[in-house]
Amino acid sequence: MSEELQDTQTDWSNRLAWFLTGAVIGATAAILYAPQSGKETRQYLNDKSQQGRDAVTDTGKDIVEAGREMFDRGRQLVEDAADLFERGRKLVKG
Q1: Among residues 23, 41, 65, 66, which one has the fewest Cβ atoms lying within 10 Å of its Cβ?
Q2: Percent helix, strand and coil across the chain, each rounded to 5?
Q3: What pLDDT, on a 0 to 100 scale, did the predictor assign at position 57?
Q4: pTM (2 d.p.)
Q5: Distance CA 44, CA 19 (A)
Q6: Cβ neighbours of residue 25 under 8 Å, at least 6 residues apart?
């Protein structure tokens, strides 16, 4: 279970890192090759940065939801193990 959690966290971290890298590269290219005026370019960058913030927020929400699901599964696993332990203890006592 711990390995699955690590894999999920690594996957989300990689996605976030690649997204941020792409956002920086895109913003840099937009500034360097912008055919619009300065005001239009600033508005464009503002819009794109808002989209980036929204994407990061959504990704964060997804990560939190995945964490909750894993926590719930782990709690259920512990409860099942405790139940099995209790049944085994009762069998041994007779």
Answers
A1: 65
A2: 95, 0, 5
A3: 86
A4: 0.45
A5: 18
A6: none
